[in-house]
UniProtKB/TrEMBL annotation:
Required cofactor(s): FAD
Organism: Texcoconibacillus texcoconensis
EC number: 1.8.5.-
Residues covered by the FAD/NAD(P)-binding domain: 5-303
Single GO biological process annotation from the record: sulfide oxidation, using sulfide:quinone oxidoreductase
Protein keywords: FAD, Flavoprotein, Oxidoreductase, Quinone, Transit peptide
Keyword Cell inner membrane: no
Molecular function as annotated in GO: FAD binding; quinone binding; sulfide:quinone oxidoreductase activity
UniProt feature coiled coil, ranges: none
Highest taxon in the source lineage: Bacteria
Protein name: Sulfide:quinone oxidoreductase
Length: 397
């Protein structure tokens, strides 16, 4: 195995694969000179997990063998990076070897901190405690919703950045719809406990979602953060983030969105911002200090919502700017903070939020996307997976 590559990419997730494919399409000079380092055997299309938790898709459809998504012409080094040495253009992997590079792309995603909530790991997957944020447990969400006989259904959103900020509420809307269909809605109290100050932070979509919440008679507790789960007693402990008040509530089922953080090996490295993310320029995606380092995706400090949709716009910027930099030309590709969140509001309805750094809607459809639409539900369920596997990962969309 070569130990030096023109382009070295850390993480073969949505971001890493998209950048590798784009570079390989754009110049034959990269062929066999790009490597992706990632210990994973499989690649996941995580946006599907919302529908899996809601019983509308099978989890196996979200998983592909990593080998099948690594683009032709790129190497896959199946190791985990443990250390960055950007002054010497090297990374160290977990078997102790080093790999060097001309250009580094940092995209190891976000780390789920299951230990951030006392008792969660012990009870996840039983006692009615479920989470769509784990491939292993995502089908337990549907098992829980499907078998729910009424009572208190609680949905949480943590006090940390999360991947897909809309996902914690999407599963709540699907569950509420399922409770209606199964005839248990009338004896069920649905509550959202969110650390956020409101339901969404783009005004147009916030107003629309507030109407959804009213129509569905969902109780909301904003600025509340889950700190402990006592699964055997079916009790959850929350903290009010404004007053510091701690309160305990009972539940019959609870969907937990766990706290998340920057991967530790990145946070402890010279590439990290103060908060631990890879510190990049918000338009060029070039590292703030190291010219030959770029970063994107969930692991970056880009001040926008962490989504695959955002990566679809970030990947071409990284690829184009690396090529320009290599040629000594100005880096003209610029990312505007675009992100998108297809907010499923039921089994036949969806609000397609699209916005930029300024929280201004940047809608791509010729109609008002703040309106719930069945067509947009089918876009998410039937078309976006095709676009992902056959377009984005192949570097063509
Ligand atoms: C339930 C759920 C619903 C979602 N819904 C949507 C949606 O509707 N729309 C949307 O656009 N997005 C959605 N997302 C978010 C989307 O999946 C992520 O934003 C996207 O996958 C991030 O891509 P990434 O490449 O940054 O990270 P990932 O795709 O998570 O990939 C990171 C890769 O880095 C690897 N890695 C980690 N540590 C190391 C290491 N030490 N060394 C080397 N490699 C490492 C991992 O193995 C992984 O393969 C959802 C996510 C979830 C969980």
């Amino acid at each position: 195995m070569k130990s030096h590559f023109k382009i070295l990419i850390i993480g073969a997730g949505s971001a890493g694969i998209s950048v590798a494919s784009r570079l390989l399409r754009q110049s034959s000079s990269f062929k066999h000179d790009i490597a992706l380092i990632d210990p994973a055997m499989n690649h996941f299309y995580q946006p599907l997990w919302t529908l899996v938790g809601g019983g509308a898709a099978k989890k196996e459809a979200s998983k592909r063998d990593m080998k099948s998504v690594i683009p032709f012409g790129a190497h896959h080094i199946q190791q985990a990076v443990v250390e960055f040495d950007p002054d010497n253009n090297e990374v160290r992997v977990d078997d102790g070897q080093t790999v060097s590079y001309d250009y580094l792309v940092v995209a190891p995603g976000i780390e789920i901190n299951w230990d951030g909530i006392k008792g969660l790991k012990e009870t996840l997957g039983k006692n009615g405690v479920c989470s769509n944020y784990s491939y292993e447990h995502v089908d337990y969400t549907w098992e829980t919703i499907r078998n729910f006989k009424g009572g208190k259904a609680v949905f949480t959103h943590p006090n940390s950045p999360v991947k897909c900020g809309g996902a914690p509420q999407k599963i709540m809307y699907l569950a509420e719809d399922a409770f209606n269909l199964h005839g248990v809605r009338e004896n069920t109290e649905v509550t959202l406990c969110s650390a956020n100050p409101g339901i969404f932070d783009v005004e147009e979509y916030k107003r629309a979602l507030e109407k959804v919440i009213d129509r569905k008679r969902i109780k909301t507790n904003f600025r509340t953060n889950l700190t402990e789960v006592r699964g055997d007693k079916k009790e959850a402990v929350f903290e009010n983030l404004d007053t510091g008040e701690v309160f305990t509530t009972s539940f019959d089922m609870m969907h937990v969105t766990p706290p998340m953080k920057a991967p530790s090996f990145l946070a402890d490295s010279p590439l990290a911002s103060e908060e631990g993310w890879v510190d990049v320029h918000k338009h060029t995606l070039q590292h703030a200090k190291y010219d030959n380092v770029f970063g994107l995706g969930d692991a970056s400090n880009l001040p926008t919502s962490k989504t695959g949709a955002a990566i679809r716009k970030q990947a071409p910027v990284v690829a184009n700017n690396i090529i320009s930099h290599l040629k000594g030309a100005p880096m003209e590709a610029s990312y505007d903070g675009y992100s998108s969140c297809p907010i499923v509001t039921g089994y036949r309805s969806l609000i397609l939020a699209e916005f930029d750094y300024y929280k201004v809607p940047t809608e791509s459809m010729p109609f008002n996307q703040a309106k719930e639409r069945q067509s947009m539900y089918h876009l998410k369920k039937d078309f976006l997976p095709i676009i992902y596997w056959n377009g984005m990962l192949k570097g063509v969309m």
